[in-house]
Amino acid sequence: MKNIFKSLMIVVLFVGLGSSAFAQENDNIKASATVMTALSITGDVDMNFGNISATTDGDVYLDPRGAASTYVGTTAVEGEFTIAGADSTSLLSSWEDAVTLTEKVTGTATMNLVVAISGSDADTQSASTLLDTPAGTLRTTSGTGNYYLWAGGSLGKLTAKAIGTYEGTVTVTVAYN
User: In this predicted model, what pLDDT tens digit does every residue of 110-169 receive, in sequence order?
Assistant: First the structure.
């Protein structure tokens, strides 16, 4: 009986020690979210390289800042987007680095457009800054919540390009940062 009592005391002692070895701790953090004015982006003006030659000696380039275009037609126009959101707030913008343009009639001929985007918090294209990082460019809206983007880019040198009108889509995505 004495041995059973000793064994029982040892078990009780271990059980008592075991419960203190598994003590639990906890703490708290707060969760929050800031709801802001709805963010929107509008494609205001479509990009157009104008009438260009099927054989061009140099880089067909439409400057998104409107200053240094080369080998484009006289009716060339840069694309334009308007972003509207909260005043003086950081935005993250992104776009595809390259877009395929496909000839509309046959649908078989293509050319590659390397996209170039410039931006400004003022609606002044000539004062815009070239945004050279397509994935994740940070910018800040104006005091009235606007930011403006202009789109252009390079078609490269054209050598015996099939005649026709080529089209593709340049997509810009924006989000609050």
Answer: 999 999 999 999 999 999 999 876 666 788 999 999 999 999 999 999 988 999 999 999
> Can you read off the two tokens belonging to residue 67?
């200053």
Task: Say if pTM beats, i.e. exceeds, 0.90.
Answer: no
Candidates 57, 79, 80; CA nearest to 156 is 57
- Is 64:129 a contact under the CB 8 Å cutoff? no
Q: Is the dihedral of CA 4, 7, 13, 15 positive or negative?
A: negative
Residue keyed to tokens 């020690």: 17
Structure tokens at 124: 């002044």
> Domain 40-176 adopts which CATH fold?
Immunoglobulin-like (2.60.40)
Tokens of 158: 């054209």
Q: Residue holding tokens 């099939």?
A: 162
Q: What are phi and psi of 9, to 5 degrees?
A: -65, -40
